[in-house]
Write a structure and sequence with these properties.
alpha+beta; 7-stranded mixed beta sheet; 5-stranded antiparallel beta sheet; 14 strands; elongated; disordered N terminus; binds biotin
Length: 334
């Protein structure tokens, strides 16, 4: 089992508790500093950080601080961690209004961060997709986050974590009444169109994993897509669902943590059940694309390691490994 660091409330969260308990009335920096046993400069620093996270906090000289009206979005660490039912996934959150890429940032902080740390952004300016593609990440349109893991497992087992993330995503959607499917190995689709993608990156030596970053992008409220992807991409809103980013993250963290714990104990059964039950490809005629070659095949099953078993038209059967190939439906994206 990896080292799991369970965090208690941070000082910033306790400052936030005091502000929200005083129900929009002003409370002086001195009162807050006394209540928490910290300096006034430290109170000021935490207030500034809370403002950066999107809280509408007003400061008035001689009166102090007051939390005004609504929070600008419900994606702040404070909001997400409130009532979050996990032990370590999402218990340490770094939030950015805008960032180049949550995966890139997670890679930078991974060594010094506890397992389960999540980096979330409202907007990414250099969102990364798989195979060098970009992931368009406009503000308030999607959910962009990266999860840091430090499993003590053999490197060959690491690719299963992408599939585990896919299973946790569709389970979280199911808990919210949305019947999403997995296009093996790592796209989440709804009504035949891609609504979420997973980019897993790893830092390792030949026999040791330092950290794994699982980056997830979900199209939530997009109304339009660029020409190059509009045939195959959609958003939850376009498919008729309005999902709160906070609610979804809480569901996802809970599902992911439960599946990840089992995975660390070498039990992949629940994830495999979901991968098979929610597969968008099993039983379908597909193209297996390997570089420039594309061959028609039938997707038969997902094996106990998460690989896809296919049968080509000439009867040859093959196990396709994650990351080795990509697949397409014969007539549509899938
Ligand atoms: C794909 O190509 O399907 C994977 C897309 C992954 C996008 C997410 S958004 C959050 C995280 N940060 C990134 O730069 N990429 C991932």
């Amino acid at each position: 089992m990896s080292n799991i660091d369970i965090k208690s409330k941070s000082t910033k969260e306790r400052v936030m508790d005091i502000l929200s308990n005083s129900q929009e009335k002003y409370i002086s920096g001195e009162d807050i500093s006394e209540k928490l046993g910290i300096s006034r400069a430290s109170v000021w620093k935490h207030i500034n950080n809370l403002k950066k996270e999107g809280f509408d906090i007003e400061s008035r000289s001689g009166m102090g601080y007051a939390l005004k009206g609504k929070i600008s979005n419900n994606l702040t660490p404070y909001e997400i961690k409130k009532n979050l039912n996990t032990e370590f996934i999402g218990q340490n959150i770094e939030y950015f209004e805008t960032i180049d890429s949550t995966n890139m940032y997670a890679g930078k902080i991974a060594n010094k961060s506890p397992e389960g740390t999540v980096v979330i952004a409202n907007e990414q300016t250099k969102g990364k997709g798989r195979t060098g593609r970009r992931w368009i990440s406009k503000e308030e349109e999607g959910l962009y986050f990266s999860l840091i893991l430090k499993p003590e497992i053999a490197i060959v087992k690491a690719s299963f974590l992408t599939q585990l993330a896919g299973a946790a995503l569709v389970s979280a959607f199911e808990n919210m009444g949305i019947d999403a499917k997995i296009k093996w190995p790592n796209d989440v689709i709804l009504n035949g169109k891609k609504i979420a993608g997973i980019l897993t990156e790893m830092s390792a030596e030949i026999d040791r994993i330092f950290y794994i970053v699982i980056g997830i992008g979900i199209n939530l409220y997009n109304e339009n897509f660029d020409d190059e992807i509009k045939e195959k991409a959609s958003s939850l809103l376009k498919e008729g669902y309005k999902v709160s980013r906070k609610d979804f993250l809480q569901e996802f963290f809970k599902e992911f943590e439960a599946m990840y714990r089992e995975f660390l104990c070498d039990n992949r059964n629940e994830v495999l059940d979901i991968l098979r039950k929610k597969s968008a490809v099993i039983g379908k005629e597909i193209y297996v694309i390997d570089g420039k070659k594309r061959k028609k095949a039938k997707a038969l099953n997902i094996d106990s390691y998460g690989n896809l078993e296919v049968r080509f038209e000439d009867g040859e059967e093959k196990t396709v490994f994650t990351g080795e190939i990509s697949i397409r439906g014969l007539e549509s994206y899938i």
